[in-house]
Amino acid sequence: MAVLPIRLVPDPVLRQKAKRVRSVNGSIHKLISDMIETMYAAPGVGLAAPQVGVSLRVIVIGLPEEEEIILINPEVVRRRGERVVNEGCLSLPGYVGQIKRAESVTVKGRDRDGREVRIKADELLAQALEHEIDHINGRLYTDHLESKDDFHKIEPEEINEEGL
Question: Which helix (H) or strand (E) holds 36?
């Protein structure tokens, strides 16, 4: 396993729609392991493959005290409700924005072994899933800002509290 460099805005890979993973093989398993290590080293609660320069539809999420989530070719199939959240990003360190996210989501994709899975999530997990799936679609949380006033610089001690 290796800690990979995280790509920062305005790296063009962050704005590309990532390619579907055709087969889950050893190189995908290594990418997943490296992404998990990179996510925790950052530290963050989620990471998408484009953030480490790989334009593939792979995301990992590691929320405190919850099992890690690994999704290959994920997509949101249902959104319910709406809430305002503060969101940050490892690819845009030192900033946070207030945006709208769903209260709950249903996501489908494949797990590390290539088996189809569905996840129903709310609160922080729903937010993390939407955030990382945005990444593989070439979107950033800043695309959801309604006003420049909703985006601001934060102090380093606030990053772990607000960042994804």
Answer: helix 26-41
